[in-house]
């Protein structure tokens, strides 16, 4: 609260919870506000209603996304899923309307005489029991499709109702703070509980008459009742006195009550807090305070998942592994929680340190309680981190030195345990063999922790023996493929080369090293490995840059070689029938290619190879003629002369025939 907005944004970026946040179901939200949320009996569909505009959304857990959305005419007070899936739904709306939906959508709509507040479905008789702003309980039979005789109660108004799943006892909570129990078979009242009187204890302060705001059965004999003043009462139906009275201490109406059977917990919620407490002792198990007000709470069956409808667009999903396993459609949450337990990370503020009262007494700062130097928060205080370090140095000036020595000793022991003890290395691929030995040592340590069997070593496998004996299998570290596929090979190879050098010295001397070489810190390798992980992109860029420089040097060398070599003249023979022309034709072609299309078309029109004419429709028609080579032109001229000679011969022959015919006639 006292941090600036800029620091809050910076903390959000560093917040572990925000970084680990997972979106289980895509777009699991409402436009403005969500009011009710329920899960189908088969566990596949989650349905929620909200505003604005009034609508219902169905989410498919198998697809982890929204299945459908239907808009309604008025806001939904509550709803009930009658079938195992989403095929039969009943909505009680604020305009006294009762709307039925089937799998395809809207099915039927009717109206009750008074404004409804809650309803329950009686499975044996297919009756809907509606309670609201009336002394009557309206019954609508879904098999016959008509209203039956209503139940007449002593209450002026009723807020909630529920039906026992075992013996189908109908119970309703009234505005006067009483619970009336009815037998649906005889339609007679069989019991009356005065919860308003029982909720008043010595520890509670109540303003006004508490009315019943929540009601829930558990099994055949237990029933939990929530009041408008923030108390939860657990009853045994055989007694009129509550077993436990639990106060939320907020004075807000109880919105929802759920039973968790694995740990015998009751999950009760008002608009501000969700409390989980033991139903036998009343001891608090845990509590959650969301950022926005709560409208409804839904516990996913047989799991530790909790969903809430809030006064905000986003509907929250909480997973508490202690309550039960994750649902089968998000079973990966169990693995995530196990990893988080193995690597716990606590949220630490940059400028403030959280201390308890005991820590302040140990530091000698208990006299600062109540001053501006300490900010009270939960069970302790926030204090400036600089003041905390100064006080700790004064209280124990040698604490940091002792801590540093202990850390150095631990690092030395770790390196001694992980040190590679080798007598001989193969002649070929020494660095690869050293890498395999290091990885084998790491796998052995991991297998010991996980109690798994060790995998066979690659060095001892006969199938890969030639790889460390034949020089043809030597890895070329200067090749382009190797350097690009292994961006960190430079640093890793340097590290291994140092180890190889040390091992060769030990082999020459016949001694084994017992202590670390001087001048090297115990955590040098860990820091190098962390730098390697962070800077692999830079290493790839460096390798690419080096490759480009090498290619440039190679090109320059080739150019020098080309300049040094003398070029000899070459002669080409022209085919028969072709004439040698100058290089002007190629220059003309290049000039033509540089010209625009319009200029080329105009030039071709002048040469006669293009003919552009208008058509009757109003468009343009272009006709092209292919250019002919000199040889083709000569051939065409020769053919033309030949045709002309043949025509002249035919004419002369026909002329002679005609003359001969005339001579015979005269004769």
UniProtKB/TrEMBL annotation:
This protein's record includes keyword ATP-binding: no
Record-level GO BP terms: maturation of SSU-rRNA from tricistronic rRNA transcript (SSU-rRNA, 5.8S rRNA, LSU-rRNA)
Subcellular location field: Nucleus, Nucleolus
Family membership: Belongs to the WD repeat NOL10/ENP2 family.
Lineage: Eukaryota, Metazoa, Chordata, Craniata, Vertebrata
Domain Nucleolar protein 10-like second: 348-396
Organism: Lanius ludovicianus
Pfam families, sorted: Beta-prop_NOL10_N (PF23098), NOL10_2nd (PF23097), NUC153 (PF08159)
Protein name: Nucleolar protein 10
Coiled-coil regions listed: none
Database matches in InterPro entries: Beta-prop_NOL10_N, NOL10/Enp2, NOL10_2nd, NUC153, WD40/YVTN_repeat-like_dom_sf, WD40_repeat_dom_sf
Biased segments, Basic residues type: 643-667
Biased composition (Basic and acidic residues): 627-642
Domain NUC153: 461-487
Gene that this sequence comes from: Nol10
Primary site of residence: nucleus
Residue ranges, compositional bias (Acidic residues): 507-517
